[in-house]
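for the recovery benchmark. tokens below, seq after
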């Protein structure tokens, strides 16, 4: 099993979960160090029991650790797909073997977008990240286009009304 976390500005960290507790926090002594001010020095611990169940517990952090929107008060069993949040970070536990079986191969970027905007040494993972970020820029582009159309309409109305006087 693996814990993957992502934070502001598309920052990502992750680690494999085993029987030994995986400590998460800002302090450099943690197994998974997140150097962000919204994360406590000792945020939480995640581990796997011998029977395969995964547990998470808050490490007496300042603002708490949440699982599926609920503040942890005691160690809690979690399953793959459960949402873990603290500070500006969120993540999930997933089964690496199952994820590897369901991996989808992407065709080259130029086949998907009609252009090749990435360097030739970019990996398929880089291409996937680029495609995801371009969907955000498409939304931004659509909003800007709508605003430009609105401003153009207002300008035309102003000119028509101004010339009629």
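predicted aa per position
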């Amino acid at each position: 099993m693996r814990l993957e976390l992502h934070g502001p500005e598309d920052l990502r960290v992750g680690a494999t979960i085993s029987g030994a507790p995986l400590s998460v926090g800002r302090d450099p002594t943690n197994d998974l160090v997140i150097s962000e001010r919204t994360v406590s020095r000792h945020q939480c611990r995640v581990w796997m029991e011998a029977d395969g169940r995964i547990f998470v517990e808050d490490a007496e952090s300042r603002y708490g650790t949440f699982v599926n929107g609920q503040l942890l008060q005691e160690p809690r069993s979690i399953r793959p797909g459960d949402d873990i949040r603290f500070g500006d970070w969120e993540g999930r536990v997933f089964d690496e073997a199952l994820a590897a079986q369901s991996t989808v191969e992407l065709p080259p970027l130029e086949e998907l977008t009609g252009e090749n905007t990435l360097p030739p040494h970019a990996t398929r993972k880089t291409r996937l990240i680029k495609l995801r970020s371009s969907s955000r820029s498409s939304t931004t582009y659509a909003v800007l286009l709508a605003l430009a159309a609105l401003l153009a309409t207002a300008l035309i109305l102003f000119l028509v009304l101004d010339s009629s006087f």
